[in-house]
Amino acid sequence: MNKQIYINGEIFTVNEQNQIEEAIAIEGNKIIAVGKNEQILRLQDDTSTVIDLQGQTVIPGFIDSHLHITMYGTNELSISCKSEQIKSISDLLDKLKEQVQLTPKGEWIRAWGYNEQTMEDQRLPTKEELDTISSEHPILIARTCGHISVVNSYALDLAGINKRTPDPSGGRFEKNESGELTGTMIENAHMKLFSIASFTEQEMTKAHAIASKQFAAKGITSIHDATGYGLENLRMLQQDAKTNVIKQRVYAMVGALSGAENIVKHMVASGIFTGLGDNKFRIGPAKLFLDGSSSGPTVWTRSPYTSDPSNFGVYYFTQEQVDELLIPAHQKGWQITAHAQGDAAIDMLLTTIERASEQYPRSNPRHRIEHAGIASPDLIKRMKEQGVIPIPNPAFHYEYGDGYVKNYGERAAQMYPLGDYLDARIPAAIASDCPVTDFNPLRGIHTAMTRKSQNGQVIGENQRITLLEAIRMYTINGAYASFEEDIKGSIEPGKLADLVLFDRSLLDCEMDDLLNAQVEWTMIDGELVYQKEAVHE
């Protein structure tokens, strides 16, 4: 079997000592040695390939511990409101008109990534504006947070929603002063509508291929998929991982954007549990949504919003309901988790975890909290006591941080508190939550190091961490969060050869130059799944 030997590199091992070495040897799909040049070159034989890295950095493949590959990929098949060409509602309507001309009658027209805070109009579009585009196509405009959308009358009719339809639990059909629907779907109302605007198997596979290719180009070798369209989506994830449409290793959370409680009940009753699968595709935790989005803002808080003293956000379930759903999952061997952004939601999930552990003691269940946005010190203490793994999203501070300060005041400095997690020795695993924000790990790492918003505001300076600490949270901690730290997440002999080569030394990078670093290649299982194209002058 051919050996690949890389020398003269800056090898971030991410081992227990955080050693930085010079060389690495790979045989087949495994790392066989890492160390000094002369030590690794002794392994050379007639079949070896020796590559001089010339001081470039190699790190373990990034593990994004919370993203939505199907949502991101299908968004790529839709109109992106994050495009430079869309700066106003008028721009968006023009793009929608173009799409209508290309789409058969009765098929969905979709746009995503809408953020009224960055649009010239500073508001969401209305149902009436969307009705002017088409009365023969359902239209859905998803807000950037993925928790709010606006739809046209055709879409409402298709979903059987009218002004007399009661609001779903944990959601709301927005109405104007006359009691008429505005077309804005909030939280669970959006989730239910979004599930109706579903995609075909062919669209999902195409979406997975597009997303996987883009993820590989940024060095992502493993993903923890945070669910989207339920059990059919789960099946397609497994199928496309097995057939290598999805290059990354997949740890799949079990739930859905709409009706997660029914899926969790079904899967717990099925007899399977977290960990089923192999190195390519594995069943992850049972997952619920407990509250809303940090940028909406709709997170559930213990104290009212700074921007609105009457607002405490949105919650989806009562404590009793969460206990009834997740304690049996814990009992049956599942890792359990939930989307919990506000401190009230984090409190609720921790209460369930504490009750589950007391009633049915288990060794090292590694329960998780997705996002854990407003994680105050008392909640961090409880996470540590229960061995809970938070999955923070530092890149949110870059894209949405100024809004956090407006809506949550001083609490914004405590959001996604990586510094506090380090001090408490809690193995937080960084994630992007793509498509909610940029999936490029360097964006998350840079914001973890600077805590700067787009406008340059530093939010929670004491929560800043170092480059090596951030990379650790994006690699070995992600592996730990999926019970896979023995096979990946660091560059050590015997581990899988999932690696990323950058075009420079990351240690020598100036802070802001870090964002300009590019991936030269991404390796999964000892095979290159991405290589940067040479620039011909």
TrEMBL record:
Which residues does the UniProt record annotate as the domain Amidohydrolase?
Answer: 50-530
Q: Which domain of life is it from?
A: Bacteria
Q: What is this protein called?
A: Amidohydrolase
Pfam families for the chain: Amidohydro_3
Q: What is this organism's lineage?
A: Bacteria, Bacillati, Bacillota, Bacilli, Bacillales
Question: Mind telling me which InterPro entries this protein's record contains?
Answer: Amidohydro_3 (IPR013108), Metal-dep_hydrolase_composite (IPR011059), Metal_Hydrolase (IPR032466), YtcJ-like (IPR033932)
* Gene3D superfamilies, per the entry: 3.10.310.70, Metal-dependent hydrolases, Urease, subunit C, domain 1
